[in-house]
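Now read these lines:
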Amino acid sequence: MGDVITAIFLILLVIILSPILLPLFAYQFVKERIYNYRFQKYIRINEGAKYFCYTSNKSSVEFVRANILPSLREDVNVLYFQPGLRTNLGDDEGFPYEIARKMKALGSGFPCVAKITDGEIIAESLNRELYNAIRRKADAKNALNKINRFLAHSET
């Protein structure tokens, strides 16, 4: 008997809330479709773009600024992220954040390098090379070589 009452209650709740929920679901669906369309357009327009992304991690930020950033090619877009702080990167509606999310999905940690090739975002982590250089108090040669190899691969 209790299961029947619960089922009736849930059915009534859905009927009562449907005038609110259906428009919300429709709005979310349309919003997501528009965002995906605009993001794919952004990817097409920025084909060949290159990105370097690093975070405000205390153990690496100074090393990256002193050793990596000055050596990056001019065509590399630099993305700097601080946890919990979302900065305005222009009219791209957070699309650089999508690139950073793709980098984060690698699971290897930041910093990362990415490029847009054939309509896809390809990313690679530099975490191991960077922290090896920091621990050994070495230069950033290995990390820079990895960046240059990764970026050059799309140009051949």
In short: The mean pLDDT is 80.
